[in-house]
User: What shape does this take?
Amino acid sequence: MPKTIMTVDDSSSVRQMVGMTLKGAGFTVVEAVDGVDGLNKAKASAMDMIITDLNMPNMDGIALITALRAVPSYKFTPIVMLTTESQATRKQEGKTAGATGWIVKPFKPEQLLEVVKKVLG
Amino acid sequence: MNVEIDTSAFTEEAYELLSELEDSLLELEASPGDQELISRVFRAMHTIKGSGAMFGFDAVAEFTHEVETVFDMARNGTIPVTKQLIDLTLAARDHIRALLDAAAGGEPADQVNANRIIGGLRSLSPDKKSGGGAAAPASTPGKAPVNTPSADEPHIFRIRFIPNPDIFATGTNPLLLLNELRELGECRAVAITEKLPDFYDLDAEVCYTGWEIFLTAKIGENAIRDVFIFVEDECELNIRLLDRDQMIRDQEDGKKLGQILVERGDVQQNDLERALLPLGDRLVKAGVISQDRVRAALTEQQVIQEKHDKKKTAETATSVRVPSEKLDSLVDLVGELVTMQARLNQTAGSIGDHTLQLIAEEVERLTAELRDNTMSIRMLTIDTTFNKFKRLVRDLSTELGKEIELITAGGETELDKTVIDQLNDPLVHIIRNSIDHGVESPDLRRACGKNPTGKITLSAIHSGASVLIRVQDDGAGLDAQRLRAKGIEKGLLSPDDELTEKEAFQLIFAAGFSTAAKITNVSGRGVGMDVVRRSIEGLRGSIDVTSTLGKGTTITLKLPLTLAIIEGLLVMVEKEYFVLPLAAVEECVELSREDVQKAHGRHVINVRGEIIPYIRIRDRFEIAGTAPDIEQIVISEVDEKRIGFVVDKVVGQHQTVIKTLGKNFQHSEEFSGATILGNGGVALILDLTKMVRYVEEEEIRELDVQ
Amino acid sequence: MFHFSMDNARSVGVLSLSGDLTIRNAAEFKEAMANAMDQANQLEINMTEVERIDLTTLQILCSAHRTLLKKGKSLALSGTVPAFIRETVQQAGFADCAGENETSGLWKGVTN
Assistant: This one.
C-alpha cells in the first residue's frame, strides 16, 4: 500500500513541485494550502508523513507542528519543515515544536526524496 | 653430503625485484623526497641481499649489502637523495644483474666496475666524507605523517549513538538512521540496552536503546555526521576512526593477549568470545560493565581483525608464479580441446541423439569458458614493457645530449604474453628512431620555438579485437620530399614516380632505407624499420606512420589480442576450406554471373554505389572446377581499403585454433596458419594483408611486362 | 492485532500478533504483552502475520524476555518469523540481545 504524504504550503508552485516529485516516487500525495487546512485534512485521513512550509497565512508551520503533535495519531509521525537559509532560529523553533527534520529552500527533487527516505524509510 | 638447491625461485624473484627497483629509482629521481619510494628501494635491496645469502649467492649478497647500507642512510634522512646517489644505485642495480647472469653461466661480472660503484657509494656516507662535518639532513618535503589514512583504503569507524529518551516525539525512527549508515559501507551494530528497564517499568514510547556501530567504509567523518544531521541535538554522538587509534595503541601498549592468541591461531575468535563472555557475566554481576558493552568490544575486535585479514588475503592472493611453458602447454591443450569439441558437436549432430546433443552443448559452453579463462591468464599488462623504456629514453637522450621526457599511457592494457614478449625489440627500434631522428637537440628546438625538452608518448589502447600501440614524438617529423629523394637515390623508385605523402612515409619501412644523415650508435644502420615491420606482421599485426613536418611523427602498431585462438569466418571453394579472420570481415554479398559481366572483365563489384575490387580465391590458388552461378564475396577491410574475397560458400563463424604451417608450403606467405575442423579436415587461415599485397605486386609486374 | 490463547495441552500461552507493530500502537502492544505474561508461565509469541515493526517492538520484547527469565518463566517465538523481522533484528543489533546464555536468547536460532 503506498504511503500518504501531505504537503502543506501556500505557494501552489512549491506544492506542485513537491507533489509531482513524490507521486513520481510512488507516494500518494495530499495537498493543503495552510496550517488550518493541513490540520483538518490530517485529522480527516491518516498521513504517513507531513512536509510543511513555515511561513503561511492562517496557521503557520510551527503552530501546525505543535497542533499535530497534540493529536495522538500524529505524536510520532515524521514532520519535515521547509525553511530558508536565513531562518536558523525558526528551524530551532520548529525542532522544539516537534519537527523531525528540515529541507532548505530552494531544493532539488532528489534532495526532497533523500529526506523522505531518511525519515520515512 | 651435497644438497642441490633449486635457485630458480631466487633468481626469478631477483630479476623481478631489479626491474621494480629500476622503476622506483627513476620515479625517485623525479620526486627525491618521496619516503615511500626510498623505502621501496631499500626493501628491494634488502630482499635481494637476504634471499641471495640464503640461496648461496654470496657475491650478490655482499655487493647488495653495500648499496643497502647507503640507502638505509637515505631512508633515515642522514644523507639526501641526489642524482649522484641514483646514478650509482642504477649502476649497482645493473651490476647485481650482471652477477646474477654470471651465476647462471653468463659472462663474469666486471669487478673493477663493482669497486668503482662501491667506492662511489661509500663516499656518499657522511662519516667517510672528506671535510667531515655533519651532513645536511635530507630534506623530506614529501614525508607523509605516519597515521594519515590513505584515501582509497576503507576506514573503520566506531560510532556511539545514544538517542535521547524522547527522540520518538519528533517523529524520528532511529532504525532508519542505521539503515542509512548501512548504505555508506559495511556496517555492524550492537544494541546497548543496559538502560532498558524491567518490563513493568517500561514506557513503550520511550527510547532506551543506544548503539555501538562499526562501519567500514571509504568515507570521511562528515559523511557520517550528515546521517545524524536532524538529531544532532537529540542524541549523544561520538565518532572515532578506529584503525588509527588501534595502530597507536598497538605501538604503545603492545597487543592484548587475547588479540595475540587469535592472531597466532592459538585461539579461535569464537573460543575467545566464549572465554570472555563468562568474564563479561562476572563484570555485569559486579555492576562494572554491561553485557552489551562486552559484546560491542568483541565486535570491534572482530571488525578490525576481518579488515586486517582481508588486507592480508588481498596481499597474498595477488599472484602465483608459474613458468610460462606451463601456460603455453595449457593453451595447446585448450586448443586441442576446442578442436575435439567441434568434432563432438558434429558427431552428436549427425547421430541425432537428443541426450548426446545436450551433453555436447554443455561441453561446448564449458570449453568456451575454459578457453576464455586460459586466454585471460596469458594476458599481461603492458606496463612492465613500457617501464623498461624509461631507462632506455633516459640513457639514450643523455648520450645524445637531448632532453626527452617519456610519457606512458594505457599501461594497464592487456595483451597476450607472446605478443608482449615479441613486442620489445620492435618498440626499442621505434623509440630509438624517435630519439635519434625524431626529437631535435635542445638548441634546435629552442630555435624552432619549441619546448627544449622533447616529448615521446608511448600509449596503448584497446580497439576491438586489437590493441593499438602508439609511439608519438613531438620532433621534426618526416620530410616527404627528402624521403622521396632518398628513395630515388637508393633505387627504390624511379625519378618519375609520383608519390602521395602517405606513400612517401611508407618508404621508411622499405629494406635498406635510412634517412639519418649520419649513422649513430643509437639507431642502427638502416636495418631498423623494415625489420620492425616484419616482426609486427609476424605477430599478425600491422604498422602505420603519420607525420606532420616540424610537429612530430606517430607510429601506430595494431596488434591482435591473442595469437593462439581467433574468431574466424569459415568459407568453402569446391571442397577446400579457408578461414578469414572475423575481425577484418565487414559483410558478405552475392556475386552473380550478371555482376561479373557488367564489370567487363575487371574484378570489381558495385556495392551500394561503392566500387570494390575483389580477389577470387578459386583463381588465386588454382582450384580446379567450375564456380557456382551465384558466388559469395566476403568484403573485408585490408590496410584501410575494402576488398572482396570471392568464395563458393560461406559456412559460418568458426573458433579457430591456429597451427603454424611449414615454410615450404606453396603460397605459405599468404596463410597465417591452418586449423583443424570438427570433421577432421583442415582449413587454411588467410593472411589477407599479405595476399592483397602479393596480388598488387603481381599486377604491377604484369603491367610492366605489357 | 493481539490475540491471546492458552494451549492447555502444553500449558503454554500463545500471543498471536498481526499487522503493524510500531510506536503508534506500542502502548497497546505492551498492554497485551502484560496480560499474556500474567496468564501464562510459558509464553510464546507468534509473529507470522506481522507486517511492520520498529524499535519499540524490539524494546518491549527484549524487556519482557529479561523480566520473565528473572522470574523463572519463559518467552519463545513460535511459527515462522518473517524474513524482514529477522533482518531488522540483525540490523538493529538485537540478535544477541536478551540472551544471558546461548540457549535462552530470544532470537537465537531465528536470526541465523
Q: What stands out?
A: The mean pLDDT of chain B is 79. The longest helix of chain B spans residues 324-351.
